[in-house]
Design brief:
With about 270 residues, this protein is mostly helical. The protein folds into 2 domains: about 5-55, no CATH class; about 60-265, Up-down Bundle (Ferritin). Helix content is about 60%, strand content about 0%. It has helices spanning about 5-15, 15-20, 25-30, 45-55, 60-85, 95-120, 145-165, 170-195, 230-235, 240-245, 255-260, and strands spanning about 225, 230. α5 (about 60-85) runs antiparallel to α6 (about 95-120) and α5 runs antiparallel to α7 (about 145-165). InterPro entries: Ferritin-like, Ferritin-like_SF.
Length: about 270
């Protein structure tokens, strides 16, 4: 095993690796301290120690992400709870049954996140007060407005969890919990979108998501047709349009973008 070659290979992928470590000199000095006579089995441990410093996420970072997710789940749970309580808003039958199930799912997500934060000796954030009528005055009297916001919240949740996955990668248990929620949020989003007669996936930057201007930040960046450095429209072959290229992939949202969306209801 050539540790120096490993470092050089990682540098090709991440040119800033030495900024994340103390320095190139210190990194190699640390590696040298393993000693020529060190057992081969000990080398991965030393290597892991160095890169944990460079790429590992601190407990405080993980807790920050979990509380960030908890705020979103509070928002979604409260939205559905208040919507179900609004007299005559959600029609009886399949639609109401679906919203009731989604509300229960969101309540379970809140419980899981609180328990996870507490298991890491963190403090869950207090439940915020949301004003869903701040920019959508008829949200609890107009069923279509309610569904519009439901779609926006679920699509936001899917993209928000995706955007924070990298910050949880150092803790397998927490990452697994987040991904369990992420996949369910995606199912919610697809179901709500179908209830609005939309495609079950996001196409473009909201043009085909049938949402008003106030909800457009939810779809920022979804017109991207390049994935992994490859421009899908040009390379996947004849018959593949920008609509297909954007619909095949979801883009992550940054924490700042999500905060902007949530601010519409605070």
């Amino acid at each position: 095993m050539n540790i120096f070659r490993i470092i050089e290979d990682i540098e090709k992928v991440d040119p800033e690796v030495y900024n994340k470590l103390d320095s190139r000199r210190n990194a190699f000095k640390y590696m040298s301290s393993v000693g020529k006579k060190a057992a081969l089995a000990a080398i991965p441990l030393a290597l892991g120690s160095v890169f944990q410093k460079a790429y590992g996420q601190s407990n405080s970072t993980i807790l920050e992400v979990l509380n960030f997710a908890l705020k979103l789940e509070y928002l979604e749970r409260n939205f559905y709870t208040q919507g179900l309580a609004a007299n005559g808003l959600i029609p009886a039958g399949a639609a109401r049954t679906a919203i009731q199930k989604i509300q229960v799912h969101e309540a379970e997500h809140v419980k899981l996140l609180i328990a996870t934060i507490q298991s890491l000796n963190g403090t869950p954030i207090s439940e915020p007060t949301f004003n869903f009528g701040k920019n959508f005055a008829d949200w609890n009297t107009n069923y279509q407005t309610f569904l519009t916001l439901a779609q926006a919240f679920e699509d936001t949740g899917v993209r928000a969890y995706k955007g924070q996955a990298g910050n949880l990668i150092s803790n397998d248990a927490v990452l697994t919990a987040a991904l369990q929620i992420h996949s369910v949020e995606a199912r919610h989003a697809a179901h709500i979108r179908r209830m609005r007669n939309n495609a079950g996936w996001i196409v473009g930057a909201g043009a085909n998501s049938n949402v008003p201007a106030g909800a457009q930040p939810v779809y920022a960046g979804e017109d991207n047709v390049a994935q992994g450095g490859i421009n899908d429209v040009k390379t996947v072959g004849a018959g593949y349009s920008a609509e297909i290229a954007t619909g095949a992939f979801d883009e992550p949202l940054t924490k700042e973008q999500v905060a902007q969306i949530v601010s519409l209801f605070e």
